[in-house]
Write a structure and sequence with these properties.
It is a single chain. The protein is an all-alpha fold. It has one helix spanning about 1-89.
């Protein structure tokens, strides 16, 4: 029975080693999965934020240029009027 007991002991040892290795790999996979999920969430937020930024830029940029152009034209007219007033005196 020595041979049978030795085989049984070796199988138990192999089984325990396989369980330990499996647990170790499961912990590593869980850690990697958590890291990947966090990176995906950060990437999704970045993508979303850039989409909002580009949308805001498209919506606001032309209006700001038009408003600034009108302000510059108005300021130029005021300067022309004030310079005409000085030349008349």
């Amino acid at each position: 029975m020595d041979g049978v007991d030795g085989v049984a002991r070796d199988l138990r040892h192999l089984s325990e080693s396989a369980v330990r290795l499996s647990d170790k790999h499961r912990r590593r996979c869980d850690a990697m999965l958590g890291d990947v999920l966090e990176r995906l969430k950060a990437h999704r937020e970045l993508y979303s934020d850039f989409g909002l930024l580009f949308g805001r830029h498209d919506r606001l940029a032309p209006d700001a240029i038009d408003k600034l152009t009108k302000r510059v034209e108005g300021a130029q007219r005021k300067l022309e009027v004030s310079s005409l007033g000085r030349t008349q005196h």
